Amino acid sequence: MEYVSVAEARDLPGLRLALSAGTPGPWGEAAKAVLGLRNVAYVPVRQHIMAANEELVEWTGARNAPVAVYADEPAVSGWIEILMLAERLGSGPSLLPEDELERMLALGISAEICSPGGFGWERRLSMMNPARTLASDGKDFMTRAYGVRADAVAPATTRVIAILKGLARQLESQRNAGSDYLVGNKLTAADVYWACFALLIAPMPHESCPMSPEMRVVYGNITPEISAAVDSALIRHRDMVWERHIGLPMDF
Ligand SMILES: N[C@@H](CCC(=O)N[C@@H](CS)C(=O)NCC(=O)O)C(=O)O
Question: Ligand 1 centre and the CA of 166: distance in Å?
Fold first, then answer.
């Protein structure tokens, strides 16, 4: 993927999206996927992973990725704000169901995957080594922003497992009702978020996801308890969403 610098991006019109260049961050991949599925064009902007990103902070108020800036509107960095932006600016099938209860379910499942206390945040805690992270100078923003504490790891693993089991139960009940999707009968944001966040326990093969070997080890290094909670249907669902809807190979 071709990135422009923050300095270049600031004067461009339309939508600019800051992403951790070279790494498939799940929130970033999900932002790209929802914008792509809604046919929203954007200019990728380089964010440097785990660095201070002073120019990005100065422009948007955010240090990490993704951050979306549309025209002269305020920057947005939360998954739900980026989803709502994609819904507003985009065209084609919506990623949210029309039926209000189904919409609530799709957004609830998405929050369990993407929000603080959800799968991504808790998996990040379960994959960080708090002893090392807490000791490393200059990475204080990582520990404070992402809630890394020595006592956070065990509960994080419990949450990751609970969410994996909940998603597997939902997929099974949907399959029994004749649907390939997590909610209703068509693709919603919940499917897209699961496909992108599944990277954090099961990165796809190199041909589909050409990430660095070091990052692949970090993402794929799961405990036996988490591994036991990964129903094969979750991985099949991930693959179906990427193959049928988002498109492969991933480009970051
Ligand atoms: N702001 C996002 C979360 C973004 C996030 O956690 N980004 C991480 C993972 S993609 C990141 O940028 N990590 C690299 C860094 O901190 O430099 C949200 O609240 O929905």
Answer: 24
Higher pLDDT, 138 or 15: 15
Residue 178 CA to ligand 1 center (angstroms) comes to 35
Q: Output the ligand 1 site: residues, CB below 6 A.
A: 20, 25-28, 49-50, 64-65, 77-79, 114
Q: Which amino acid is at 71?
A: A
Is the confidence at residue 17, as pLDDT, over 90? yes
- Global confidence as pTM: 0.95
How many H-runs (helices) and E-runs (strands) does the chain carry?
13, 3
Domains belonging to the chain, first-starting first, are 6-89 (3.40.30.10), 100-246 (1.20.1050)
The residue written with tokens 């520990």 in the block is 143
Write the CB contacts of 7 (distance below 8 Å, at least 6 apart in sequence).
55
Backbone angles phi, psi at 64, to 5 degrees: -100, -165
Mapped onto helix, strand or coil, the DSSP state of residue 70 is strand
